[in-house]
Amino acid sequence: MPRENGKMPTVSSENGDSITAFSGKVSGRRRKIETEVCQICFGTGMEIVEGKGAKPCVCRSKDTQISLLERARLPRRYEQCHWNNYIPTNSSQRAARELSMQLVTGFPKTDEGLLLSGPVGVGKTHLAVSILKLLSERGFSCLFYEFGSLLKEIQDSYNPNTKSSELSVLKPVFDADVLVLDELGASKPTDWVRDTMAHVINTRYNNRRLTIFTTNYLDERINDREETLEDRIGVRLRSRIYEMCSTVKISGEDYRKRADRPNALKNSANR
After folding, report:
1. Stretch 163-169: mean pLDDT
2. Is residue 220 a part of any domain in this protein?
3. CB-side exposure of 14: number of CA atoms within 13 Å?
4. How much is the pLDDT for 45?
5. In whole angstroms, what separates CA 191 from the centre of its chain?
6. Could you count the other beta carbons within 10 Å of the beta carbon of residue 256?
7. 37 vs 165 pLDDT, higher one
8. 8 Å CB contact between 29 and 39
9. Residues ≥6 apart with Cβ < 8 Å to 200
10. Is 188 contained in some domain?
């Protein structure tokens, strides 16, 4: 979404609150805001309101937002993904952006997530991360996982030489208010992979937790050699995701191949 007059885009929640799209860069190293003494509370964390007593200072809410984003496990590659630098190039991308913003404003009254599907480079991950950042800013616990990385962590938890356990890996995945599972179907569909996917997806479904998926696999078979999403994850799981999510098909050319990419999205993350 492009900026207008230098201002960040805003959307309105169902209760009428205005929400500004998160634009600050969050790195793996926490921004050292502690070194900047707040001029309201002078580092105490409490603001004195004359005649009313004390209340938590606004600087503490900023700390909370940063902490929530850090816990979301966003890879550094996606730090630059925001609404303001998602630039739709066709009607499907404009519709996907609109549906993504509707999800943000409707949550938590709705638990229906999104399945963002389409070829590489059309903005699926960019939109998913933008949703996650805005909901983190609103105070919800969010988590990002590339599906192959999640499977690898679960496999590693079976190794007696590691200090992790399957429960320690999966509990945050089950409990997060909002979970982004990137690249659904990318891992080889073995029985173990499908069983693990079913465990994760069914648990979140039963607990009515909002989940956003991205995938390069479509529901339609383009040719005899192409696999569908159902081929990759199985009939039962595809049916469950129909219940959990609205399917949003995004089309377009790979932005990485665009001639204007160095100028238009030089610092943009992988989409």
Report:
1. 80
2. yes
3. 9
4. 57
5. 27
6. 12
7. 165
8. no
9. 150, 170, 173, 174, 181
10. yes
* CATH number for 249: 3.40.50.300
Write the pLDDT tens digit of every residue in 195-245: 999 999 999 999 999 999 999 999 998 887 889 999 999 999 999 999 999
* 89 in Cβ contact with 264 (< 8 Å): no
Mean pLDDT of 115-144: 93
Phi and psi, residue 246, nearest 5°: -85, 135
How many domains would you assign to the chain? 1
Give residue for tokens 């790979």. 254
DSSP letters of the chain? ---BTTBPPEEE-TTS-EEEPP-----SSPP-GGGS--TTTTTSSEEEETTTEEEE-HHHHHHHHHHHHHHTT--GGGTT--GGG----SHHHHHHHHHHHHHHHHTTT---EEEEE-STTSSHHHHHHHHHHHHHHTT--EEEEEHHHHHHHHHHTT-TTSS--HHHHHHHHHH-SEEEEESTT-S---HHHHHHHHHHHHHHHHTT-EEEEEES--SS--STTPPPHHHHH-HHHHHHHHHHEEEEE-----GGG-TTHHHHSTTPPP-
Share of the chain above pLDDT 70, in %: 70
Q: How far, in Å, are 72, 95, 115, 157, 163 from residue 244 at the CA level?
A: 21, 19, 9, 28, 33
The CA-to-CA distance between both ends of the chain, in Å, stands at 14
Would residue 23 count as lying in a domain?
no
* Selection from 55-59, 78-82, 85-89, 92-96 with the highest mean pLDDT: 92-96
